[in-house]
Structure formats: C-alpha cells, structure tokens
Amino acid sequence: MIWSSLLFADAPDFMCDVFGFERQIVVSSADDPAVIEHSQLRWPEGGIVQVSTVGRPGNVFADRPNGVGSLYMVTADPQAVWERCLTAGVEVVQELMEPDHSPGTTVFSVREPDGNLFSFGIYAGEA
Questions:
Q1: Parallel, antiparallel, or unpaired: how do β-strands 36-42 and 48-53 relate?
Q2: CA–CA distance from 88 to each of 37, 57, 79, 101, 119 (Å)?
Q3: Rounded distance, CA 19 to CA 84, Å?
Q4: What is the pLDDT along the chain (127 residues), one digit of tens a residue?
Q5: According to the model, what pLDDT value does residue 76 have?
Q6: How far is it, in rounded angstroms, from Cα 106 to Cα 77?
Q7: Beta carbons of 114 and 71 less than 8 angstroms apart
Q8: Residue 32, exposed/middle/buried by CB under 10 A (0-12, 13-18, 19+)?
Q9: 4-121 belongs to which homologous superfamily?
Q10: Where are the domains of the chain?
C-alpha cells in the first residue's frame, strides 16, 4: 500500500466537497483548529491520501512548497467528478478527453486553488 501526502493552505474541505473524497480522520492542531496536523481522506473507489496544512512550525514534512503535488485518481465515473469540478469553478488544465495510451477511456486534469494538480480517469493501468 502507498499513501500519498499533500499540503494545502485550506485542507481538506475542498477535496471532500468538490472531488468526492471521504473524511476518515482529521486531526486539528490543539493551538489552532484551522491547522490540520494529520488526516486520512479515502477515495471512494480505493486509496487513501494524507492531507495537512502547509508550513506547520517544527514539522519537516510541512516545510515544503505548497501546491506542487499531483495525483491521479481512478474512477468509474469521471463525468460526475468533471461536473462537480466545473460547478466549483476549478481551473481546468486538461479537458475531458480520450488518452492515446488507453483508447476507450476518459481522463481530465484540474488545478485546485492551492495549486496541486489532480487527474481523474477510468484508466487503471495494465493488469
């Protein structure tokens, strides 16, 4: 199993409200409830991403540039995620399309407000 970790200025609401991740655990700082120290967000079709607040003092993992992450999510219904992204006004970096490497599938990519890139598609790799 691999867990990815992303940094946000305002995490994890966007990923749940727009993309459709589900909150499993969200741990706020005791000093500032707006600062997320740790989270586990579950992709409904499988997988976990850990999302936390960028620039947390004394945390080497939070001492990285914000908005430089990139994830690809496999979904059986990219059209539904696409529509939620358009409704939310997310920046589209690649329109919904059929990739050359996987005819008959669809994929699209967006940049969320903190700058991280997300791609959603049917392609799940070669078996």
A1: antiparallel
A2: 26, 31, 14, 29, 16
A3: 7
A4: 677 888 887 768 889 999 999 999 999 999 988 889 999 999 999 999 998 888 888 888 788 887 888 999 999 999 999 999 999 999 999 999 999 888 899 999 999 988 999 999 998 876 5
A5: 94
A6: 9
A7: no
A8: exposed
A9: 2,3-Dihydroxybiphenyl 1,2-Dioxygenase, domain 1 (3.10.180.10)
A10: 4-121
| Neighbour tally for 67: CB within 10 Å | 16
Q: How far apart are CA 8 and CA 17, in angstroms?
A: 15
Tokens of 57: 């003092």
pLDDT at residue 53 in the model: 87
Show Cβ contacts of residue 60 under 8 Å, excluding neighbours closer than 6 positions: none
CA distances 46 to 6, 20, 55, Å, are 17, 12, 29
Residue with tokens 């000093």: 31
